[in-house]
Design goal:
285 residues, alpha/beta, TIM Barrel, Seminal Fluid Protein  PDC-109 (Domain B), 8-stranded parallel β-sheet, 34% helix, carbohydrate binding, metal-binding, hydrolase, Peptidoglycan/xylan/chitin deacetylase (PgdA/CDA1 family), signal
């Protein structure tokens, strides 16, 4: 590339970054507020999983969530999305919400707004490319290490709400599953946003949730997503749109009229909103 061409490319990139760091709240989008609670009130919980996807632990975790008819938030690293696009596609197809967790889990708090924006744009691009959907909703951003700095404001300018957490079982410290169960039980409270991980060694995490999710459901807890800030919002629906003449095996998830549904067994023509014997409503997007 010529020196003139390089200069024009740099100016173009600077123009893009100058645009994306303009506060979105002025246009009615996310506000930059950091969120610690679910959208709904009462006995609602939001499960969030960071640092994946992992070819070892993400698939069995997704199997568990599908079995228990639970939707979660996956805070994906851009680099891992590039390595495992099949898992990003599965996360989206099963109706889970996507969250931008930076490209390589760097502490972005000390970086300039333009540097933060460049990282978050690259991460969202990597996630959408992996999913094969340039319009894939990515409604959340989570700061690596919970180190926010200006990142929540920059994320808001890119259309993402800043999702923190209010329960941390510290599943990254090597503790066995029974210790994680005890920590989660002790910290549990209405509207909690729970931090866990699917990247790294997550055997104890998976075992703990195999115990706790059925227990929580039996005790009347329901599963929600973290609250969004500002508005209006892009759709959170990532599962494919329901099609009348398509066959869906049991366990398949679809989005339809602002909700995510899961097929209880083989289905084809039954409309999700009018066939509760076939489709389980997993909640609003």
């Amino acid at each position: 590339m010529s020196r003139l061409g390089i200069g024009m490319a740099v100016l173009g990139a600077m123009a893009v970054l100058a645009t994306v760091v303009t506060p979105a709240s002025a246009a009615g989008g996310p506000t930059g507020e950091i969120v610690y609670s679910t959208r709904g009130d009462g006995r609602a919980l939001a499960l969030t999983f960071d640092d994946g996807p992992s070819p070892t632990w993400t698939p069995p975790l997704l199997d568990l969530l599908r079995e228990r008819k639970v939707r979660a938030v996956f805070c994906v690293l851009g680099g891992e999305a590039q390595r495992h696009p099949d898992l990003v596609r599965r996360i989206a197809a099963e109706g889970h919400a996507l969250c931008n967790h930076s490209m390589w889990h760097e502490d972005l708090a000390a970086k300039t707004p333009d540097e933060v924006a460049a990282d978050l744009v690259a991460t969202s691009d990597a996630i959408r490319k992996a999913a094969g959907d340039p319009n894939l909703p990515i409604p959340y951003y989570r700061a690596p290490f919970g180190s926010w700095g200006t990142t929540a404001t920059v994320a808001a300018s890119l259309g993402m709400s800043a999702a923190a957490w209010s329960v941390d079982p510290r599943d990254w410290d090597g503790s066995p599953a029974d210790v994680l169960v005890d920590r989660l039980t002790a910290q549990l409270h209405p509207t909690a946003v729970i931090l866990s991980h699917d990247g790294g060694d997550r055997g104890p995490t998976l075992t703990a949730y195999r115990t706790l999710i059925p227990r929580w459901q039996a005790d009347g807890w329901r599963f929600d997503l973290p609250r969004l800030t500002g508005g209006p919002y892009p759709s959170l629906c990532t599962a494919p749109t329901w099609e009348r003449d398509r066959s869906y095996p049991g366990g398949s998830r679809v989005s339809h009229e602002g909700h995510v549904y899961q097929a209880n067994w083989w289905a084809r023509v039954e409309r999700p909103t009018t066939a509760p014997w076939v489709w389980s409503d997993l909640g609003a997007c």
